[in-house]
Design brief:
Distance between the termini: 80 Å
Shape: elongated
Oligomer: single chain
CATH topology of the largest domain: Tetracycline Repressor, domain 2
Number of helices: 9
Low-confidence stretches: 1-13
CATH class of the largest domain: Mainly Alpha
Strand content: under 5%
Structural class: mainly alpha
């Protein structure tokens, strides 16, 4: 009977490990979003409610944690486009997606130094992330063109450039009210308006 014990214990450990990893990703995302300087690994572990040893078992280096948070956010943006389109008309989905994009940029505040170093060494590919994000925007724009509620004379590159420019000047937490107003103005400009 003893040989049967390890297989029963393993799924329990895998479930715990999955919960710990999810908690660490959530805590790191929050810590990076709310900090102007890079938070310590110990602080992230504390916020996740786990020991620092558990953090290092999942993410042996700061770079591995930053990469995991960054990739998780890109996936959330790409899957978010489809999720939002399934629940909302395209123009509304695009405006809600803009909020996800703003959150993604905010998350990068507290990991900028590590992220830039990783981009310099090629550990993170901006080209891949850019393709994923432009694909998400294109998905919504195509749906909007079909539905007739988003202009057809704009590209995903136009939307991305507008978002990056707008959020560069109002993307910090203290400018959230202004950022929301500017995103609403941008969305108004992207809506298809009936011919007058």
């Amino acid at each position: 009977m003893a040989p049967d014990s390890p297989p029963e214990a393993a799924p329990h450990l895998r479930a715990d490990a999955a919960r710990n990893r999810a908690s660490l990703l959530a805590a790191a995302t929050q810590a990076f979003a709310t900090s102007d300087t890079e938070p310590s690994m110990r602080e992230i572990a504390r916020q996740a409610g786990v020991g620092v040893g558990t953090l290092y078992r999942h993410f042996p280096t700061r770079e591995s944690l930053v990469d995991a948070v960054y990739q998780d956010q890109v996936v959330r943006l790409t899957t978010g486009a489809h999720t939002l389109l399934a629940a909302h008309p395209p123009a509304e989905a695009l405006r809600l997606w803009m909020d996800l994009f703003a959150d993604w940029l905010t998350t990068k505040h507290g990991m900028t130094d590590t992220l830039l170093a990783m981009i310099d060494t090629g550990e993170i590919s901006l080209a891949h992330s850019r393709r994923e994000l432009l694909s998400a925007i294109t998905t919504i724009l195509d749906a909007g063109a079909t539905a007739g509620d988003i202009r057809t004379d704009i590209t995903a590159e136009d939307v991305a450039a507008a978002l990056l420019g707008l959020l560069a000047v109002s993307g910090k937490a203290e400018h959230n009210t202004q950022a929301q107003r500017l995103l609403d103005l941008l969305m108004d400009g992207l809506r298809a308006h009936p011919a007058r």
